[in-house]
Inverse folding.
């Protein structure tokens, strides 16, 4: 056994996933290296790069309605991205080991069809499917669906919890003998019965991912998820979140390793620390153009601020808490508090509107040389702040290339990351148990 193998046997291993960016200002659209969000080649490039780096999975976000600002499609959003599961079925044919995670909404879908689609993906990929469960609170999104309307925030996770439990009942209705058993579920949100149309898949159950930092989200993850996708900028905040969520598992009869905590993070690499910081500053400015700075301000203030100079001071007027200026995103309920913090920051540092938006909305997590970034990632995991990371590059589709070429080898040298896949399913990559069949 080599020294590296001996070290990795005793060191906590880092889990890595690749997020295909686009539904926010993370992506630097103006960069000449930025490519299509609908051509299959873009998705294939990022997925193949992630698999070359021995990542656990490839992760696709998805929304059910295009967000609007002043009645126009949101300037920063993707228009025309393919549906996630359809795309991942195609990627299953050009990858061998990489997990494939799709976002599917539990508010505006139904358990039978969702369970069928993920079981199908799990079969076609040889056991690599994952479901990122999200919910929607707004009637704006609901207008796209026959049922319409929306769920109160307190009911979203109630439905989602029953949704996931019902899907698992369907997956369990086929036994190892290949014989489908009748299912019957009668609950608060769903009343269905029959026989499920897809045999038990290679993983038993596809991996379930949940994104959310609220108390309800943490509880849902502790009770039902295999992975939680979160965001915490500091080691201390990460440790607090990690301890809180892991501490909730015992009441559901689960062990700490049954749930992997993987914050979404960005990275900027340079040959020197100074070069990396310079690149990071340039990226922040590209992510927040003068027009987008005003747009971001209007999202908080809920008012038309187009007459304001982005290089000028913040508006003196207070936000409108009842504004419908922006639709299709979570409503900001603490706009007055956010505005007060932005004003205090702007006054303390002498920042313009654009500079304030850059400083308050930037999501750059790890900045430095490949050696320092590898060391910091390792410190987060060894220090109990995360089990791994979902990387969100700022370029599509080549933004992960440098990380795989420069940071992954250093993580492997540290004994903190695999040099080869040891299993074929996503559950094996993540170190998750295969669900026991409940016949």
């Amino acid at each position: 056994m080599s020294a590296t193998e001996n070290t990795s046997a005793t060191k906590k291993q880092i889990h890595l996933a690749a997020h295909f960016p686009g539904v926010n200002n993370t992506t630097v659209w103006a960069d000449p290296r930025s490519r299509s969000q609908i051509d299959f080649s873009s998705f294939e490039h990022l997925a193949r790069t992630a698999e070359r780096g021995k990542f656990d999975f490839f992760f696709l976000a998805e929304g059910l309605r295009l967000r609007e600002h002043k009645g126009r499609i949101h300037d920063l959003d993707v228009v025309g991205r393919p549906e996630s599961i359809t795309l991942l079925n195609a990627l299953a044919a050009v990858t061998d080991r990489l997990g494939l995670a799709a976002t599917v909404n539990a508010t505006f879908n139904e358990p039978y069809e969702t369970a069928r689609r993920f079981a199908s993906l799990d079969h076609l990929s040889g056991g690599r499917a994952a479901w990122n469960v999200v919910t929607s609170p707004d009637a704006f999104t609901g207008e796209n669906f026959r049922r319409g309307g929306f769920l109160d925030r307190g009911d979203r996770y109630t439905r989602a919890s029953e949704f996931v439990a019902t899907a698992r009942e369907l997956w369990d209705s086929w036994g190892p003998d290949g014989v489908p058993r009748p299912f019957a579920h009668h609950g608060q949100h769903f009343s269905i019965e029959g026989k499920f149309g897809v045999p038990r898949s290679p993983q038993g159950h596809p991996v379930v991912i949940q994104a959310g930092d609220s108390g309800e989200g943490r509880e849902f993850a502790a009770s039902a998820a295999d992975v939680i996708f979160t965001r915490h900028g500091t080691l201390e905040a990460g440790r607090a979140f990690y301890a809180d969520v892991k501490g909730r598992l015992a009441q559901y009869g689960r062990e700490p390793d049954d749930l992997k905590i993987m914050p979404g993070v960005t990275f900027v690499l340079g040959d020197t620390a100074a070069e990396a910081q310079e690149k990071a500053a340039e990226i922040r400015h590209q992510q927040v153009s003068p027009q987008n700075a005003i747009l971001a301000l209007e999202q908080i203030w809920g008012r038309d601020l187009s007459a304001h100079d982005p290089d000028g001071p913040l508006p003196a007027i207070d936000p409108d808490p009842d504004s419908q200026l922006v639709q299709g995103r979570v409503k900001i309920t603490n706009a007055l508090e956010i505005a007060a913090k932005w004003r205090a920051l702007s006054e303390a540092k002498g920042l313009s509107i654009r500079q304030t938006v850059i400083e308050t909305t930037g999501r750059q997590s790890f900045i430095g040389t490949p050696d320092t970034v590898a060391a910091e990632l390792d410190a987060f995991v060894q220090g109990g702040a995360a089990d791994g990371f979902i990387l969100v590059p700022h370029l599509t589709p080549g933004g992960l290339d440098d990380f795989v070429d420069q940071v992954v080898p250093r993580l492997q040298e540290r004994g903190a990351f695999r040099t080869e896949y040891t299993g074929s399913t996503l559950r094996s990559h993540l170190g998750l148990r295969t669900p026991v069949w409940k016949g």
